[in-house]
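Re: that chain you flagged

S.,

Sorry for the slow reply, it's been a week of failed gels. I finally had a moment to sit down with the sequence you sent. For the record, here it is as I used it:
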Amino acid sequence: MNRTINKTALFFALVSLALAAATIFYASKAEARGRAMRYRDEQAMNELVAQLSQMDSALNKLKSAPEGRSLQTAAAKLWQCAETAKSCMSSLSLPDGALDKTQKYVGQTGDFAYYLLFSAAGGQQVSLEHRQALQSLCRASQSLTEELNAVNGQLDRGRMVFSDAREDQLPLSDGLSGVEQEFPEYASLIYDGPFSEHLTYAQPRLLSGLPDVDLQQAIRGAAAFCELPVTSLSLLYEGAGRIPCWCLTDGKGITAEISKQGGIVFGYRNSRFVAEAQVAPEDAIRRAADFLARRGFKNMKESYWSRYDNTITVNFAYTENDITVYGDLIKVSVALDDGEVVGMEARGYLMSHRDRTLPRPVLTETEGCAQLEDVLTVRSGKLALIPTSGQDEVLCREYICENGDGAHVICYLNAITGQQENMFLLIEDENGTLVL
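Prediction finished late last night. Pasting the C-alpha cells below so you have them in one place:
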C-alpha cells in the first residue's frame, strides 16, 4: 500500500516538475518574443523618424531645385525615403488606423516625387501648381517631423512605451493619436498618379448623363442579360461605391450587378460546378466574344487569357480605328466543360469608356522599331491607348518583341514623343499568358 502511495506521489511530483519547467520555458519564450518585438518596434520607429527627416531635407531641395539633374536627384531621394518610411510604418505593432493620415501623406508624397522624376526624365518641366504643392508638402513635412521627433524623445526617456505602460507612462498609440489629430493641412495633389486627389471623386464615364432605373426596371434588364425569366430574379442587396447598383440573384447561384444609373449589367456570375474540360480554349474565346457582342458590348477584341480549374478567363479591350483601348477592359469567364459563360466583370469598362478624340501619332512604326532593335527583336506592332496610374491615357506604339532568351516582351513607346512609357514580360504556357 505504502509503495503504491509513494509511486503515485512520485508521479504527481514529476508531473508538477514538468509543468513548472514547461511554464518557465514558455514564459521565457514569451518574454524573448516580447523583447524581440520591442526591439523591432524601436528600430522601426527610429528608422521612421530618420526617413521622415530625410524626406524633409529632400523636399526642401526639390521645391527650389532648377530643372535638370538636381531636380531629378532630389525627386529620386524623396521617393526612396518615402518607400522606406512606408515599410517602417508597416513594421510597427500598432492598432489598425493608428497612422492613417501619416501613411496617406507619405504615400502621396513619395508617389508625387516619382511622378516628377518620371516627367523630368521625359523632358517635362515642373508646373507652377506643382511647385506650389511642393511648398505645401514642405510645411507639412516640417510639422510632422517635429511631432514624431517629440514622440521618439518620449520613448527614449521612458515616458512613453510601446506596450504595458505604467501609471507614469503613456502607450505609443496615445502619442501617435495626438500626432494624427494635429496633422497639418497640405495642398490637394492633382497629378497623374494613383494617390492623386482627383481619383477620390472619379465617376463612371460611360454612365454620365444616363437616366436612373428603379428596381423593377433593373430586374427586367438583368433577366434579359442572363436569359432568365423576370420572375426568377430578386434583390440580393443594394451596392454603393462609385457604381451604385442593384445586385440580383436567382437563388440558385446566378448573380448580376446592374448599375442604378443607366441600367447596365457590369457584373455577372454563375457559381455552378464546372466538370472536366471538353472545350478548347480557342472555342471558349469565340463564345466569350459572342456573349459580349449579343449584349451590346461592341468592338471588343480579346488580348490575353488564363485558365484555372477548368475555367478560362479572357481579357477583352475596346478597339477604335485599329487602336486598342486597354482602359476599356472587360473580363469574361467560360466553363470548359460545355462552353457556357459563367462570369463577366466590366467595372473598368463603365469607369473608362467614352467618346474620345485621339491625337495623330508622330512616331512611325519604323522609327519605334529602330529604337528597340538594338536589344530586342520586334515581332509585331500596333497602336494602343494605355491607361496611366492616374487614370490618364497615352497613345502608344505597342510592340511585341523577343529578347535574347526567347521570352516575349511588350514595349510601349509614346506615339507623340517617342519616350518609353512601359514594358511588360509575358509568361506563356498551356494555362494562358501572365503579364508581369
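What I noticed first: The chain has three domains: 11-201, 216-352, 365-435.

Talk soon,
D.
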